[in-house]
Amino acid sequence: MSDAPTDHDLAPWIAAQRWYAAKGGSGPTLRTLSTDDDTRLVLDDAATGAVLYQAPVVVRDGTVTDATGDLDWVRGLAARIDADPESLRPIGTVTAARVLSGEQSNTSVICDTEAGEQVIVKVFRVLHHGDNPDVTTQLALSAAGSSRVPAVYGALRGSWPDSGRREGTASGHLAVAQEFLPGTRDAWRVALDDARAGVAFADDARRLGSALAEVHRTLAEVLPTTPATDERRREALATMHARLAAAEREAPAVAEHAEAVRAVYARAAEAVWPDLQRVHGDLHLGQVLAVPGERGWVFLDFEGEPLRPLTERSVPDVPLRDVAGMLRSFDYVAGALARDADPVDTGTWAHDARVAFLAGYEEGIDADLHAHREVLDAFELDKAVYEVVYETRNRPDWVAIPLSAVSRLAARSAA
Fold first, then answer.
1. Which secondary-structure segment (H or E) carries 138?
2. 40 CB-near residues (< 8 Å, 6+ apart)
3. In degrees rounded to 5, what are phi and psi of residue 25?
4. Where are the domains of the chain?
5. What positions does the domain Aminoglycoside phosphotransferase occupy (predicted)?
6. Residue 171 pairs with which residues in a beta bridge?
7. What are phi and psi of 23, to 5 degrees?
């Protein structure tokens, strides 16, 4: 094998990676579209749909190796991020690097720098044309001086041939570099441990609501907002109805609640909606870090819901989507502990966390969420319906958690 592996050489290596999307098929059919500074972009014409991957590789002793584990390649990547016009602060010389284990859709590399700092560089594996909201949202927050996200150093864009576009070229983000926060736990682990130990989470939940409100306020100041027009409300509700119909087919247990859910959506259609703005888009406790000291809660991964097209994830959305996601996450803490070998009754814990979170958020935005109750109910129910389908496909023994929420939320909203 030469130092530049052919597409045929690369195929079995890509098929074995955790971030390869078409597992279970006949294997990738690759075409290299671009190779620049050892950053190789390859198109897989998979039966489930074409996917463009960023697959930088080096060859060591005749073996294809992921370049994200190669210090020289990482140094070159850091230098290109520093040279990008979007960069906010220099990374500088990387002295050591290690790949963070456990990720699937992307690859993160923790870098030690000559300046004594630690930077985490996220390399996006599946590429799309257009701005990645994980980059643009956090760039905007960092540029505004927000401490509610890891400070962004910079980002790197790339381009590749695309015969489907009029100009024949597509472009998008390849990587983003941010402050690394060692010694932290995510909010899911904090909440789970507290609930299991019988420790109230209400004070932390209130601070979490306040922190989310701060993020929403900042995003509304630095990125575009727009009124929730009749057309945008219809689009959002149409997506909810389509998800419900799909859930009825795939998870028949939803069917007995479907009419009650549709009634919630109908009330939301007539309700007052808040202005639309940039949001997190896929918020839950696992997307928040507990940073020791005064900094408190820090939010991660602003890519939005993975199943939504990239273009949809970058446009102004309903901030209540994030609120609903966090409310569902409290419910999952209670549901997870109820399934333990030594079950813990956390119904009161979850209720108190929910009330405190909403109070903190309302204080932070200086508004009463009761004015948007029907809209919040609709988004929370939509999230629960999504979870029913997810659990049916992936963890059938967990499906009772979101299914009971569908029943409870529909009944409560009708009260």
1. helix 133-143
2. 10, 32, 34, 54, 55, 56, 57
3. -90, -160
4. 7-179, 185-414
5. 98-341
6. 159
7. -65, 145
* Cα dihedral value 237, 221, 176, 32, nearest 10: 50
SS3 160: strand
Q: How far apart are CA 200 and CA 191, in angstroms?
A: 9
pLDDT band at 1 (very low <50, low <70, confident <90, very high): very low
**In sequence order, what are the residues at sequence separation of 6 or more whose Cβ sits closer than 8 angstroms to the Cβ of residue 256?**
none
The radius of gyration computed from the CA coordinates of the chain, to the nearest angstrom, equals 22
Q: pLDDT of 228-284, one tens digit each?
A: 999 999 999 999 999 999 999 998 889 999 999 999 999 999 999 999 999 999 999
Cβ count near 400 (within 10 Å): 15
Give the up-direction half-sphere exposure of residue 412: CA atoms within 13 A in the CB hemisphere: 13
Identify the three-state secondary structure at position 99: strand
CATH architecture, domain defined by 185-414? Alpha-Beta Complex (3.90)
Query: What gap in Å lies between CA 277 and CA 329, rounded to an integer?
Result: 22
Q: Rounded to an integer, what distance in angstroms lies between the CA atom of residue 111 and that of residue 102?
A: 17
**CATH 3.40.47.10 is held by the domain 7-179:** no
